[in-house]
């Protein structure tokens, strides 16, 4: 059967950009405004002869003023629930945020295999510096990525396709 891979993280970290890059589509709406993806979005992907179902989500926010937040969050929680593997995206330019820690808590409880992906590492120049704050998470492997510029993309996808 086809493993389900969910893209999870707070809004604006680049989940939809990565979804579109992996699926070679423009189906997921990429927008600088957080909270544009409201429902889950599915597409089948084949990489190195391995098939998976990729799911984009609206993100897990901690902004209580936005009335849509509970719905978007429920969609993200449902995606985690049904996922076999989670790609947890964070923003290398912004560093670790309280909303990232909320996702960490949710994922810890979900007990799913997680790839910790640090996006917006747009090249090797500042990679080590930008990754530094994320070692606080205490995870063994951080995956550097630029969903926009393809840096780190093949490495991540090859590893992912080997584990499914
Ligand atoms: P989502 O809310 O997590 O789905 O994030 P989006 O995919 O909509 O992206 C949010 C913003 O971040 C957009 O303006 C993207 O163009 C930008 N973005 C996404 N990936 C990258 C990246 O690798 N590098 C840079 N510099 N910007 C990115
Ligand atoms: Mg999105």
Automatic annotation (TrEMBL):
Signal peptide positions (record): none
Residue span(s) of domain EngA-type G: 3-164
Residues that bind GTP 1: 9-16, 56-60, 119-122
Q: Which family does it belong to?
A: Belongs to the TRAFAC class TrmE-Era-EngA-EngB-Septin-like GTPase superfamily. EngA (Der) GTPase family.
The UniProt subunit note reads as follows: Associates with the 50S ribosomal subunit.
Function per UniProt: GTPase that plays an essential role in the late steps of ribosome biogenesis.
- In its UniProt entry, what is this protein called? GTPase Der
Instruction: Record the organism.
Output: Desulfotalea psychrophila (strain LSv54 / DSM 12343)
